[in-house]
From TrEMBL:
Protein name as catalogued: Glucose-methanol-choline oxidoreductase C-terminal domain-containing protein
Low complexity: bias regions: 276-286
UniProt-recorded Gene Ontology molecular function terms: oxidoreductase activity, acting on CH-OH group of donors
Cited InterPro entries: FAD/NAD-bd_sf, GMC_Oxidoreductase-Related, GMC_OxRtase_C
Species annotation: Amborella trichopoda
Pfam families: GMC_oxred_C
Protein origin, superkingdom: Eukaryota
Gene3D superfamilies, per database record: 3.30.410.40, FAD/NAD(P)-binding domain
Record region (Disordered): 265-286
Ranges of residues in domain Glucose-methanol-choline oxidoreductase C-terminal: 134-236
Amino acid sequence: MVYTDLQGWRHHVMLWPRGEVILSAGAIGSPQQLMLSGIGPNHSLIRWGIPVAHHLPAVGNAMRDKPRNALSLVSPVRLPLCLIQVVAITTNVFLEAASNFLPFIPRSCSSFLAPRYTSIPLNIASVMAKISGPLSSGSLRLASSNVCDNPLVRFNYFEEGLGLQRYVEGVRLVARVLKTSAMDQFKFPGRRFGEREYWYLDNVQLPANVSNDNAVGEFYRRTVSTIWHYHGGCIMEEVMDAQWGAGHQGRRWLHLLAFARDQSSSHGHDARPVKKSSPPLSLSSR
């Protein structure tokens, strides 16, 4: 086996007889590696000139993610580095907060950052609403046959009408929090004497009328982002047995760990077995 590390060095690895390779490249990297290795929907592999080792149509499908919406505020008071903290839970929405946490700072504000991110001259608070679970699913497709090229991923956040209603609920929850007296410490003096107002990074702020479903829905569509809980994409045939996939005639079934409880699982499991619809995948151990 040949692979390239993060520094660009190539390495050759020899497997012992009957040795196996465990693919654990994450929810995006794992289905990409399978397809680049010839395991996946044959029409997608043929398109990029990849020899088909096994036609497995489900690879790259059922990509799911928990969408979130965040507002980033410049704070007039000094804030410590704080990773994501859950501050409230409703039936459908998690309200979370973080401070000085770089992944939640808008890209257009990168000019504030010193070279190599050695410091950040602003104190930034982020308030975000995260949907309790994905309601729709998307897909992952190869962008080329080059392993260094990122694949094309689509999560279809707004595929289900019910999902948009939950997003609207989350935005309104954030609006209620911003109106509380506890948030006054994050406001700056306003344009008129006695006024105080928020300083939004990148001028991303809530619509003036949060009771308007269309305005709130458009705001969420424009600002939706990932919470990095994506999963799926490696759905394969169920080949579990008492020996955890042991085959016969010098072959072993390629299997996966069955972590998920059901097909609608909203947890971050990268691979899930499905009902058998075609012969299971097998790889020669020779």
